[in-house]
Amino acid sequence: MLPLQPGVPVPQKRTGVVYSAVMMLHMHPDEHFDRDEHPEKPERISAIWDRLDAHGCIKRMRRLPIRDALREEVMLAHDEGIWNGVEWSAFFTDDALASQTEHLNGEDSLYVNEHSAACARLSCGGVIEMVEAVVSGRIRNGFAIVRPPGHHAEPDRSMGFCFYNNVAVATKVALQKYGRRGESAGTLSKVLILDWDVHHGNGTQSAFYEDDAVLYISIHRHEGGKFFPGKPDGGHTFSGVGAGLGRNVNIPWPEGDMGDAEYLAAFQQIVMPIAFEYQPDLVIISAGFDAAEGDPLGGCHVSPQGYAQMTHMLSGLANGRVVAALEGGYNLESIASSALAVTETLLGDPVPAPQQSLRCKVLASQTIREVRREQARYWKALQHDKL
Ligand code: 6DK
Ligand code: ZN
After folding, report:
1. Which ligand 1 atom is the nearest neighbour of the CA of 40?
2. Which ipTM did the prediction report?
3. What are the DSSP calls for 203-228, one per residue?
4. CA 187 / ligand 1 centre spacing (Å)
């Protein structure tokens, strides 16, 4: 450690991190016997934390205290039924829990144990704290290493491994406090949520579908609505309604197998032109890593360098106010190396060049063209070419 010299400012830690191993207590009730049975396993977050620590990132970051999301906060994005359902799940008897788990697993891809409610509150509260720290200017950017994930959770329904929609709740809390009519009015009027999880964030889309203060952009496997969550809503024609018209952008891949070339093309040709025109005050990444090479659910090939490039491009917006919040990602090695690449980019380290071929698949180019044609109705940046 260098001695402090008078007059020489101590470098501020400008990149935040939230994490708590308590969130590992949410686990499949049967996983005491076979931890590998369910992909959304506790070690997902410790694998990321350990990798960041091993590479010296954690000591360069400001660790924010994590806390429970409050009922009033969760209720900004959800019905009371969701709060009650999740909170009461902690008090079910083993038998009731088993039958509920069976039901939820089948229909909604959810499991619960006696700790799930507490973990869902922490996961959501962690993202709220990170967003608040960035919006208030205490830090420039940050990574929330949280679970359970959130982006499938609808206003009235938990599903797809998600209880509370962490990103939607945190966005609504920030807009309430710092938005046009908020206590510290004026600092936050436009938020970009960029969702690169391989699944469509149906819950986040629903939360802001009529809202012009939030631009939701999702890149996901869609396959005509056959890929999870298995609804037409992730299609390219779903562009928002009312005040939110033109504030929802879906980039739906018609098949798997997409990699850096396709993701970077989508960024260069859709995400960044729209984002620069929108001029957000804050960027939140729904940062699932299940489009990464090696993921057992995603079937795509995005590399750590690809994630670093996307993070770097987004950091050019909103004065670098970028929050990455973990969503999915199920190969422990892939999510650790992807999260490391994102974090190093947030820390300002040199951005590694993509190593894969940047030739975009024909099917992906067609998707990009369709999305541009749809969104050209709302964005001048897309209107100059013959579509
Ligand atoms: N279920 C998510 O990554 C969640 O988007 C994805 C949820 C997929 C549910 C369908 C599915 C399996 C697969 C294998 C074994 C058990 C269940 F919300 C996020 F976490 F981000 O593939
Ligand atoms: Zn996912």
Report:
1. 20
2. 0.99
3. HHHHHHTT-TTEEEEEEEE-GGGTST
4. 36
